[in-house]
Amino acid sequence: MDLMSADQRTSRRGSLGGGPKIPPEEAALGCRNVNKTFGSLRAVDQVSLGIEAGEWVSIVGPNGAGKTTLLNILNGFYSPDADADSEVYLDGEEVSGSPEHYRARRGLGRTFQGLELFEEETVIENVMTIRAVKERPNLLSALLYYGPGRQVEAENMRRVEEILDYLELWEYRHSTVATLPLGIQRRVDLARSLALEPDVLLLDESMSGLTFDEKYDVIRFLSDLHEEEGLTLVMIEHDLEVVTAVSDRMVVLEKGGVIARGPPDAVTDDPEVARVYTGVD
Q1: Which domain holds residue 80?
Q2: pTM of the prediction?
Q3: What is the average pLDDT score of the chain?
């Protein structure tokens, strides 16, 4: 249980712990004054973010800092505390009360630390299932597999095949997911998120448990998407070497609150960030 007052928590936040870069309502993805409490635990504490279109922002911090909880609020899996004046924005629209599927259709994608794949289905079936969420023909045409329904099905398959080829998953397309190594399963998770054609992609430790070579592959794909397609990336990652190499900005959380934010070089040199990671004041 955190016994510090709000003023005490604020006083411990580093010199780079100011407000968001741009107003949340003008951002590709933003939030203002987000709180989330579980019982006596304040998991997210007055967090405000403003992430510009095309940015790669990494959210870092020790275990239990509130990183995944914050992502769950941004994508609609959790709602912020009802008694807080919390707001979440997606491309200028306030979506604080909107469910996950609405935000997904509005361009917000998500990968998961704990893979949520359909393990008994093939790779292509996994991705096609998620793709169907994006474009649904009317019920009658879908049942008859005729007209618009047939056209949508063909377009969905074409797009899914492109994604599998792009992520070098083509040879695994008919393999059952449960039979594949973790590195390939991570790529399948990424393929599913790309099937929704997101403008903003939330990455929750998408390299967790991977070897150096497997991490390199994931970074290679993400870098291409970021640089060539302009995809906005919001990444939780524990490997600071990876974070500092790829990120435009970093946001550091401790005990649910932002203690530093800014360019990687400035953040990693901040004494408060060093204290969080080393335990030395």
Answers
A1: 1-107+198-214+229-281
A2: 0.85
A3: 87
